[in-house]
Design a protein that fits this description.
With 104 residues, the chain is an alpha+beta fold. It has helices spanning 2-17, 33-44, and strands spanning 30-32, 47-53, 59-64, 70-75, 80-87. A five-stranded antiparallel sheet has the order 1-5-4-3-2, covered by helices on one side.
Length: 104
C-alpha cells in the first residue's frame, strides 16, 4: 500500500512541478473525456489501465495498448480532460504480495 501512495505522490509531483513549456509550444489537447478515450482507442488501441485521484479531486488515468504505446490524461472536477503526456514502451507490473497473500 505504501508503494502505491509513494507512486501517487511521485506522479502528482511530476505533473504539478513540470515547468511550463516555451510560449510557442503546442497547445494542450483537451476535450470531453469520452471523446479523448474514443480517439485513443480508435487511433492507438489504447484502453484505461490505471487511475488515481489527485489532491484537487481530478482523475489521472493511464491509457495503454498491448503494443506498448501509452497516454496520461487528467480530467478536472468540471469534466474537462487533457492529455499530459504520451509515449512508447509501457510496461505493467503486478502488485507484489506479502507472505500472507495481501498486496504490499
Amino acid at each position: 500500500m505504501f508503494r502505491f501512495v509513494l507512486l501517487g505522490a511521485a506522479l502528482f509531483l511530476a505533473v504539478t512541478l513540470v515547468p511550463a513549456g516555451p510560449a510557442d509550444s503546442s497547445p494542450a489537447i483537451c476535450g470531453e473525456r469520452a471523446d479523448i478515450a474514443n480517439s485513443l482507442s480508435r487511433k492507438y488501441s489504447e484502453e484505461p489501465v490505471s487511475l488515481g485521484v489527485n489532491v484537487d479531486g481530478g482523475i489521472l488515468e493511464v491509457f495503454a495498448s498491448t503494443g506498448g504505446s501509452w497516454t496520461i490524461v487528467v480530467t478536472d472536477q468540471h469534466g474537462r480532460s487533457c492529455v499530459l503526456a504520451a509515449g512508447e514502451h509501457w510496461e505493467s507490473f503486478a502488485p507484489k504480495e506479502k507472505p500472507d497473500g495481501r498486496p504490499t
